[in-house]
Amino acid sequence: MHDILQDTITLANLNPAAAALAPQKKRPRAPRRTKAVRLVDVARLAGVSTATVSMVVNNHPRISPTTQRRVRRAVEKLGYRPNFSNQALGARRSSVLSILLPAQRHTFADGYFGELLSGVCDQANVMGYTVMFERVSGDFTRARQHLALLEQRVAQGALLLGFSDYNKFVADFDPQQHAVVVVDNAVDRADLDFVGCDYRSGAEQAMTYLLQLGHRKIGLITSAAGGRSTQEIVDVYRSAMAQQGVRPGEGYVADGKFTEAGGTEAADEILRRHPEVTAILAASDTMAIGAIHGASKRGMSVPKDLSVVGIDDLRHAAFISPALTTVRLPLHAVGARACERLVERINGRTAPTSDRLPAHLVLRDSVAMARDLSAQSAA
Predict the structure, then answer these.
(1) What is the pLDDT of residue 65?
(2) Do 329 and 367 meet the contact criterion of CB atoms below 8 Å apart?
(3) Which of 24, 169, 212, 224 is the most buried (most CB within 10 A)?
(4) Any bridge partners for residue 180, and if so which?
(5) Beta strand pairing status for 279-282 and 307-312?
(6) What span, in angstroms and rounded, lies between the C-alpha atoms of 268 and 254?
(7) Contact by Cβ (8 Å): 95, 129
């Protein structure tokens, strides 16, 4: 058998003319290369976010039937095919979102951060991501760990909570290389995604309410560490006072350091310098609660002698005595939206976004008419 095969091969090699007459098999034409349809292309056609497309493709129940149909029509029209093998490989590499937090002692016990973190974690769970927490200290940034987390694919993206323009490490992020979202405290980086509360509108509602009740001597408890969000509250306060023809002296404003103890000290400072003050606006609920405590220590009754308004509407604000009138910030929704925006960035969105979610005033028991007007009404 070996000899017959060898003879056949030899004859074929010696008779090239016969080989030329033999029918030739056509080589298959190489398929034309087409540009792959991306998740962002589907999102653009459907008029939704890439995060929404991702959830529809992965059959998450959170998306409404109407939106699901719109997305699936776009998927069919464009011929989008999710690469589940690549998704699985990506998941093995990193399905983690990093949350960067200030290295403060009580960060995780703070109600403000707790609401934001709950929103982030709830949404991350819906979208199939896990989260990791990093407290950003001086050593952390000097070692450039904030960049290593992303560049070494420990996490696919990062959410920055509680930082301001004072934190120089924010300037290190390049949105072309790093998926980053700044959460609830705007910084001087228009190229970075931002999601936060509308502090200006909330402060305007609070000041309008106090002025309508006859308050003209209004103190403000703020904090130098608050960044741009707190500055918006200060700007609204000064503008509202000026429009009423009232020029508050320096002692009308004090720093409460975003703590209850700081709020107590700030209220005491304001009332000691200006006992005629009838109301205080505090840039956080914690400082407002401290202000109520400070007024009580001075023998004042809230709201009879002093009205107090906070900003946050933390869960315990309704259960202190008196229940706190405050500006409700949609902190849980901000955390969830920030997570969505980060996943969009991870999935290829390049245009920066800036979202401000609305705030509104919640009326409770810590505010009343100004003292002089109350006396006139009683008479």
Answers:
(1) 84
(2) no
(3) 169
(4) 158
(5) parallel
(6) 9
(7) yes
Give the pTM. 0.75
**Token pair for 85:** 């093998």
Which are the contacts of 134, defined by CB distance < 8 A and separation ≥ 6?
98, 99, 100, 101, 140, 145, 146, 149
- Both tokens of 186, joined, read 């705007």
The DSSP secondary structure of 296-350, one letter per residue, reads HHTT--TTTT-EEEEEE--GGGGGSSSPPEEEEP-HHHHHHHHHHHHHHHHTT--
> What is the length of the chain?
379
Residue of 281, 290, 232 lying closest to 257 (CA atoms): 290
Alpha-carbon span 152 to 161, nearest angstrom: 21
d(CA 102, CA 160): 9
- Side-chain-facing half-sphere of 351: CA atoms under 13 Å: 6
